[in-house]
Design a protein that fits this description.
The longest helix has 20 residues, at 469-488. The strands form six sheets. Strands 7, 10, 11, 15, 17, 19 and 21 form a seven-stranded antiparallel sheet that branches. The protein has a six-stranded mixed sheet with strand order 8-9-14-20-16-18, with no helix packed on it. A four-stranded antiparallel sheet has the order 2-24-4-5, with no helix packed on it. It is of the alpha+beta class. The chain has helices spanning 8-12, 25-36, 48-65, 167-170, 246-249, 361-368, 447-460, 469-488, 492-499; strands at 22-24, 70-76, 82-84, 91-98, 104-106, 108-109, 130-134, 150-151, 160-162, 174-176, 179-184, 187-189, 195-197, 201-208, 214-222, 236-242, 272-273, 281-284, 290-297, 310-318, 336-350, 404-408, 413-416, 424-430, 441-443. The protein folds into three domains: 18-69 and 432-486, no CATH class; 70-118 and 356-373 and 395-431, no CATH class; 134-350, Jelly Rolls (Sandwich), CATH 2.60.120. Helices cover 18% and strands 26% of the residues. Helix 2 (25-36) packs across helix 3 and helix 7 (447-460) runs antiparallel to helix 8. It is elongated.
């Protein structure tokens, strides 16, 4: 029947010292069900999920002012003069900074400033709805979201691959290890006595560019190296923008060594790099990862029947020529692989939401100026000295030199005055004890209060329990009050020490 189920060595070598003073919420629920629920008891029948709900609500309410579920965080305040609110933050109890002696000095909340949403404006004062570097046009541009790439679907909403080399190598062409790879090889064309050749690959995706006149394309890729006796040339990758619909207007099912059967590779990219006549693609020929960025003029792209301007991000891949055919038994051994790590497309375009300045003028001014409480002006000058003896006292709410703060609930940050910069700041805050399973504990001084809170909540929400509600309301109030007194931990020695100050004439 004993509650201690481990020996002394296990306890003193553990990380949960002092846990005997607490009871888990799960035990509270189980014990409530045993004591209060059943035939002939106060609650004849109830779902255990209902008990769990009311138990969690009771724990929340008691945590705020009875159980003293106060946590703290300490940081060195950065130059930004901001501290992020903790994940389980509900409200603060105290903010302070620590001096070299380890003494906490209280910081005081100010109600005279804030950090409002600063609307981005044009020079004429109108609101700016043109955003820079808009991303999200390209789906799965880092090739992180899928295990393979589909064939077909016209590139709507995801990547599409066309014209894979052969059934054997097709199994290795697609997205693998968060990269897009094209597996090339040599194939015998024309039967016995024919020649060895290879085919080209393509991958593409349709994107909406309705609100922009230019876009920026950035890609990281590498190509296959030449292999002596197998392929005499390294691979080639081209990544760019085209208005041609790949499945309709681009015939990629031909051999790169037969240029007469293939559209000119560069003419596939029928737009231009901004302010040039260069075609709208970046070419990769290095066997190591290389990043290239190009800005493409899309102002000439017309709207379709649905009044939408669309283009294709188009990838062309080849390795040629081959001296021997790729064997079916070990395709990757005899294969050449071109690999793309990621592709990023950004635009400057119209948005339908208000844009925000990086920092509001209000907060910028607040943190850049020396706080008024730090003004040590002794008024010994021509302006104020004649008023010697006639000045009124300072408002007590401002009579401190420690520093101030305010909480920006919109951004989830605490902003501090400039005189706190670089100091160690401590935030004491209240949580609701429901953040993690380990936190769902009740001090044994408040265990009975939990039972009464749960019983009162259940009875007040049932038809059969209405006659008992007044009784359990009183019992709940009494047990919560008793828990507060128990948890206050008043000690006679501490009270005695405080009362000794009654003889002092001047007190704080």
């Amino acid at each position: 029947m004993g509650l201690i189920n481990r020996n002394a060595r296990e306890y003193y070598q553990s990380s949960d010292l002092g846990d005997y003073q607490f009871t888990s919420l799960a035990n509270i629920i189980n014990q409530f069900e045993i004591a209060y629920v059943g035939e002939g008891k106060i609650i004849p029948k109830i779902n255990k999920l209902d008990i769990a709900f009311h138990a969690q609500r009771a724990l929340q309410e008691l945590s705020f002012d009875t159980l003293k579920a106060v946590k703290s965080q300490e940081i060195v305040l950065p130059p930004s003069l901001t501290m992020m609110l903790p994940q389980d933050y509900v409200n603060y109890t105290k903010l302070s900074y620590v001096d070299s002696a380890g003494i906490k000095h209280p910081l005081y909340k100010t109600n005279s400033t804030s950090n409002p949403f600063s609307v981005l404006q044009n020079t004429d004062g109108s609101y700016d709805f043109i955003a820079d570097n808009i991303t999200g046009l390209l789906t799965n541009g880092n090739f992180d979201g899928v295990d393979n790439v589909s064939s077909g679907n016209n590139g709507n909403g995801n990547w599409a691959i066309s014209n894979t080399f052969s059934p054997v190598l097709d199994k290795q062409t697609g997205v693998f290890n968060k990269k897009l790879q094209f597996v090339h090889g040599g194939q015998l064309f024309g039967g016995t006595g024919g020649d060895i050749g290879s085919r080209t690959y393509a991958a593409y995706q349709k994107i909406n560019i309705s609100n922009t006149q230019s876009l920026t394309l950035q890609a990281t890729a590498k190509v296959a190296a030449a292999i002596s006796g197998f392929t005499s040339a390294s691979g080639t990758l081209r990544i760019g923008i085209t208005t041609l619909e790949p499945d309709v207007n681009i015939n990629m099912a031909t051999r790169p060594d037969k240029p007469g059967l293939l559209q000119s590779k560069e003419s596939i990219y029928n737009l231009n790099i901004l302010n040039t006549t260069e075609p709208s693609f970046a070419e990769f020929t290095s066997t190591t990862d290389t990043t290239k960025t190009i800005e493409i003029d899309v102002s000439s792209v017309n709207s379709n029947a649905s009044n939408i301007r669309e283009v294709y991000v188009f990838i062309y891949s080849e390795v040629d020529p081959y001296a021997v055919a790729t064997t079916a038994s070990s395709p990757l051994t005899d294969a050449s692989i071109n690999i793309i790590d990621d592709i990023i497309v950004t635009i400057d375009g119209e948005v339908d939401y208000l844009q925000q300045n990086q920092e509001s003028t209000t907060f910028k001014n607040y943190k850049s100026n020396t706080p008024s409480e730090n003004n040590q002006d002794d008024y010994e000058d021509d302006t104020y000295w004649p008023m010697h003896g006639n000045r009124y006292g300072l408002d007590p709410q401002h009579a401190q030199a420690n520093g101030s703060f305010y909480i920006d609930s919109r951004l989830g940050k605490i902003n501090f005055s400039s005189n706190i910069s670089g100091k160690t700041v401590i935030l004491d805050y209240i949580s609701d004890s429901l953040g993690t399973d380990a936190e769902m504990q009740v001090h044994k001084f408040a265990e009975e209060a939990m039972y009464k809170c749960i019983a009162y909540a259940i009875l007040s929400t049932t038809v059969y329990g209405q006659q008992l509600v007044p009784r359990f309301k009183k019992e709940k109030f009494a047990e919560v009050r008793k828990a507060k007194l128990r948890l206050s931990s008043l000690k006679i020695e501490e009270l005695t020490q405080i009362l000794r100050g009654k003889s002092k004439q001047i007190k704080h």
